[in-house]
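Re: the 370-residue chain
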Amino acid sequence: MDHSFDDFVKQIGSFEATGPELAANVLHAINRYFYQRDPTVDGFSGFEAYWRANHADILALTINEKACKDLADLFHRLWSTGGFVHLKENVDVSEVSPRIVANVRFFTAVQDFKVDISKNNRNPYRDPESVLFDAEQIATDESTPFRILRYLGAEGSQTDKRVEWMREQARFLRERYDGEAYAIAARHQNDAIAIKEELVAETGMGFKEKKADMFLRDMTELGVWSYDSGVDTINVASDANTMRVALRSGIITGRLPLVSSFLDVYCYQYKLLDSLTQRAWRTVWNQWGISHPNTQPKTPASMDYMIYKGIGKTYCTKTAKCLRGLPCPLNDHCPRETRRLQPPKSISIHGMTGWNSASSDDGGGLGLSS
């Protein structure tokens, strides 16, 4: 099978049949190219091999430096005038020791996917349950991780994984930092890069890049640490909301609207945009500091809540409020032609989803199953 997309298109254009026969020929060609395994290529299909090699050139995603500067100026104005934005949720840590704040956030940072740790006025830093977030207790008392999950309302959602993360985190702190998350920064000379690398390297704790960025962000936003170096590497987490705002605001531009996730076999498009979104928001943060250093947030990630919640979930929803004639703080910034753009979904990570068994062979049939 030839894996050139050009040749695939030429094959489709060469069919002379009409009606159901034409439909049969076209569907068979699509199935062969997109979804049938081919022993001559290393991959899911001929299309996956082609998409893997060429997706970046096809999408042509770039960071628009001017749009980043314009958005940084707008963020500065909104922030300076007490506009709609604020940099973080109002979390009360007054009169709470930095040690407790560090321990609580260390153990909750990896838990709060799909869990709002401050839901129903919960404050894990000040509530009596704050004593549960202790490495020694988590390591030695089997019930403590479950009590933490019950308190956070996270029972029944990947409980085994969440408990294992906590136990690995407790082991990590006890073995390297005398059981205290607060000690991590000083041990690494307040270098944000070194701290992040240390957290991410421990694969059993649930800290990947995004969760590590969140933890490092909150340690400085909550007044626990300050960083002597590497602060510019603490990224805005790229999720559906921060990606959507990046695309619609025009700080990321491309050749075409993003393809459906069913075409993004093994999420090459998603990974590309994930990385570019972090870089784009870091560019906005850099421009903010160049033009308005007195109001620049402490880290790029300090803009996270403002972008994903203050803008994304409040105004720039799946159907943007501006498209319904409603006001939005970015109304005068976003190009008209980008306001319907949508972020991709991550549905086919290699080795982790049903896409590994989704392709067929020349016998046809098969595919994804629920």
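Residues 5-59 form one domain.
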